Amino acid sequence: MTNLRPTIRKATSLLRHLNSPHRAHSTSVSADELSHFSSLANSWWDPMGPSRVLHLMNPLRHDFIASCLFDSLPPPRASAPETSTPVNNLRYLDVGCGGGIFAESLARTIPTNANSPSQTVTQAASITAIDPTSALIKIARDHARMDPKVEAHLRDGKFTYKNCTLEDIVASQRETPEDEKFDIVTLFEVLEHVDSNAASSPLAFLTNCLRVLRPGGWLVGSTIARTFPSFLVNQVIAEAPWPIGVVPRGTHEWSKFVNPDELYAWAQEGLMRSQDGASLRAGGDALQGMRWKCSGVMYFPGIGWKLVPGSENWGNYFWAIRKGL
Amino acid sequence: MRPFTRSALRPYVCPSCRSGRLVGRRRFGSKPDQAPDVYDVVCVGGGPAGLGLLAALRASPLTSKLRVALIETQDLQKARAWSLDSQHFSNRVSSLTPSSVSFLKKIGAWEHLDTDRAQEYQEMQVWDGETDSRITFDWSADTSPFENLPTVATMTENANLVRGLLSRIAASGDENISIFSNTTVSSIENGTDHPDGPDLSAWPVLSLAPNGTAQSQLPTRIAARLLVGADGINSPVRRFADIATEGWDYNRHGVVATLSLADPDQVSFPIGTRTAYQRFLPSLGGPVALLPLPNNHATLVWSTTVENAAYLKSLSPKAFIAMVNAAFRLSMTDLKYMMRMERPANSASDYEDLHESELTWRLQHTPQASQVPPMVNGVQEGSVASFPLRFRHASTYISPRVALVGDAAHVIHPLAGQGLNLGMGDVASLSKTIEYAVDHGMDIGDILSLEKYTAERWAVNAKIGGVCDMLHKLYNVPGHGPVAWGRSLGLEIIDRLPFVKGFLMKNAEG
Ligand SMILES: Cc1cc2nc3c(=O)[nH]c(=O)nc-3n(C[C@H](O)[C@H](O)[C@H](O)COP(=O)(O)OP(=O)(O)OC[C@H]3O[C@@H](n4cnc5c(N)ncnc54)[C@H](O)[C@@H]3O)c2cc1C
Ligand SMILES: C[S@@+](CC[C@H](N)C(=O)[O-])C[C@H]1O[C@@H](n2cnc3c(N)ncnc32)[C@H](O)[C@@H]1O
User: Fold this and answer.
1) Whose CA is nearest to atom 3 of ligand 2?
2) Where does the chain bind S-adenosyl-L-methionine (chain A) (predicted)?
3) Which of A154, A324, B119, B285 might form a disulfide with B304, Cβ 3.0–4.6 angstroms?
4) Does a structural domain hold residue B3?
């Protein structure tokens, strides 16, 4: 069944005109990355296409988020109405949502009618999904319309797609009280696509993610470690020509991969920076109540992805940072 | 996007409705652009498989809120009201394996069955009529005599199962569920893109037609996130999804009947232990099986050629009983002879005695095998019937927004009593697949959600169907040639190999 058929990277130039990211603010977006992902847009939702590996990993993201919430649940907002039965009340931001694989699946778990009593494991009440690649946002919106339940959420505002950068969200939240920010920010397979140069760095990017997160909330992500095995697996094998390869050539640049220990250090640094005041620099107390979670995942051909704790240095891994109260 | 998603879906129109269609249009009916009523699961077919799926979905907290519909051509009210006294049994009886029973218990359906009408058996006698080599399926070797013997299978009337499932579904309440009985699916087509609403162009939309006097407020068109074909061998859903099937007809019929038995010759131990008997009759086209029912009754499944089936059905009750008793006792030559005996045109009373006296006389000259079933002494009036035996296997069980379960996906030779059990296995697997998908925000109609189901079931069903087919072919070579010799070796080898025997006994749970 698992016949992986990646399409060759193609038609990049044709699609280039589709890329019109907002560049109102200084941006972390790399032009190369944009054109690469635009070229994948057409096949994004093809279950046998180049994004199949992402599709297969998607259910584990729900499991991993559920495990974070199990460890520590963002406290109810002061503004939240009292309820006797548990309801979905978390606000999500999906950064770098691409064609919407995760965002759409999360939107599907948002109850259609507010007084529906059952609570889902990810407890989502709303989700905003952003991506700088306009072609992908279009694909995501078109696809969402193919499910009446998800489409209804697009109309009632519980689900929003925005073609914008993370920096745009930060700017728009400048006046937002801490308690009204997002409960969960997700960053799946994005960090390894962020450039390191004078204008942009993974650290700055993480810091911005933490800025839009409310205290007690989780920043959850997945990425690939920059280790020898991951080099072998992701650069040599995964991008090999068909039928071995599972992702299209040019999807990853190994030098952009991030190791768990680097990420952990950035997370701490980012937490402090995100709480810097206008005049005052945040110190070690910004780390109080912080939590760090990390779990490797491995892809077994024919079986799919499995959470394999301890394998985080081998390649793909999930990580999460809880911002202290 | 690849055209895959859409090209896999082709309009299906029920043959009798075809004439009424507007020519050259994808749709018919008056209000094509009116949005159809949207359901999460639409199940076509209210047999054991379809009702089993619905009951399973209603039983799980993850799926009990899904909006579900079931469409059945026949009148389910009759199935709900089905009732027989304790001395009468329906002739459609299936042997449920322990895994089917535990699934039915898990979904809370078993307690809705009348279990006094179900009969467990702990032992199975299978032998070759040509060579007499034998395989005994009993567990006594592995069990101490004081323990209860494990059950091989539980004989259950299909009507009892269906009524129980309906009652289980009713007990789950009437929220989010619509059962359209007495209703036929007249066409299945792709929906349309509603510019101000959802794009349903890759969703199956069904048109429903009431049969005669059905409900008044029937929605005419319903859309399915997941369309389940539980609609039997000629599955309209399978045709809509354009899923190919391989298969052939065995040119055999299964003759069924409800029988009553003389007292058992031997007292079974432990008390209450019941045995199923099956004798392969190569020269007559297949095996004859006698499976126990409560109160000293039994159900017959005799797989044989179409001509033999017609012959058996034409016999008087006495002659029919004589033939059944002969089938478990006489040599192939004697049986073939009796299968061709004259049947006087009008029922002269001495004609009944012909088969009976022939049997009595021939029995005196036949050495008796060690273990034969008790003598049959009665046949329930109107219970003799026959069904064509066929093999079908769909090339896959899924397609975008479509899944097949039960006979819609596979039809196999009944010699191991597996057909309905495979359907229960499908339903257990599909309901689990749907649960996982719901829990992880997946679209339950998406190929990515469904591929787990076909991966889990297809090979298992192919293996069991294949074993049954192989046994059928092996036991259709008459005479004492090398095949028969190999066969006798075969049964004895099976008897010695716990693995193969276990496979046959437990009927491969997966
Ligand atoms: C002689 C014989 C003996 C057998 N013995 C055994 C046994 O011992 N053990 C065992 O496990 N199995 C046995 N089987 C097999 C078993 O009976 C079948 O596998 C089982 O009944 C299949 O159930 P199902 O729900 O998949 O299909 P079905 O019972 O065929 O149900 C399909 C339903 O779909 C409905 N339908 C069809 N088209 C439409 C439409 N367009 N619109 C609405 N509704 C529609 C039909 O009315 C029907 O009710 C035996 C079979 C035979 C022939
Ligand atoms: C591998 S895809 C992952 C998509 C999605 N998160 C998923 O897993 O299904 C990476 C995505 O990151 C986006 N991206 C790249 N650089 C980005 C940046 N600097 N800021 C936000 N998104 C970016 C790309 O447009 C692309 O959609």
Assistant:
1) A189
2) 61, 96, 131, 188
3) B285
4) no
Distance CA B203, CA B190 (A): 5
Contact at CB, B4 and A46, closer than 8 angstroms: yes
Q: Domain of B141?
A: 119-152+251-340+353-385
| CA-wise closest residue to A169 among A138, A217, A210, A134 | A210
Query: What's the CATH code of the domain at B99?
Result: 3.50.50.60
Indicate if B267 and B381 belong to the same structural domain: yes
- pTM, whole model, 2 decimals? 0.87
Report the C-alpha gap between A29 and A199 in whole angstroms: 10
Q: Tell whether B198 and B144 lie within a shared domain.
A: no
Among candidates A45, A62, A145 on the partner chain, residue whose Cβ is nearest the Cβ of B440: A62
In angstroms, the CA B40 to CA B444 distance is: 8
For A25, A57, A241, A245, B16, the CA distances from A234, given in Å and listed in that order, are 33, 15, 13, 9, 56
pLDDT per position in chain A (325 positions), as tens? 333 223 222 222 323 333 444 444 567 787 777 777 777 777 889 988 888 888 999 999 999 999 999 999 999 988 887 777 888 999 999 999 999 999 999 999 999 876 566 789 999 999 999 999 999 999 999 999 999 999 999 999 999 999 999 999 999 999 999 999 999 999 999 988 888 777 788 889 999 999 999 999 999 999 876 655 555 556 555 665 555 555 666 666 656 667 788 888 888 888 888 877 655 666 677 778 889 998 888 777 777 788 877 777 667 889 999 998 8
- Cα separation of B193 and B462, whole Å? 39
CA distance A88 to A86: 7
For ligand 1, pick from B16, B17, B43, B72 the residue to mutate: most ligand atoms within 8 Å of CB. Answer: B72
Clarify whether residues B188 and B303 are in a common domain: no
Q: Could you tell me the end-to-end alpha-carbon distance of chain A, in angstroms, rounded to an integer?
A: 47
How many angstroms is it from B48 CA to the middle of ligand 1?
A: 7
Token pair 């997160």 in the structure block, residue: A213
**Would you say residue B292 lies in a domain?**
yes
Domain count, chain B: 2
Instruction: Identify whether residues B137 and B210 lie together within a single domain.
Output: no
| Residues having CB within 6 Å of any atom of ligand 1 | B 14, 44-50, 71-74, 94-95, 158, 184-185, 230-232, 236, 254, 256, 301, 387, 406-407, 414, 417-421, 423
ipTM for the complex shown: 0.83
CA atoms of A84 and A99, how far apart (whole Å): 37
Residue B427 in domain: yes
Residues B196 and B323 in one domain: no
Are residues B93 and B177 both part of a single domain? yes
Bridge partners (DSSP) of residue B300 are B257, B290
Give chain A positions within 8 Å (CB) of B451: 1, 47
- Are the beta carbons of A43 and B1 separated by less than 8 Å? yes
Domains and CATH numbers, chain A: 50-70+85-321 (3.40.50.150)
Q: Are residues B167 and B285 in the same domain?
A: no
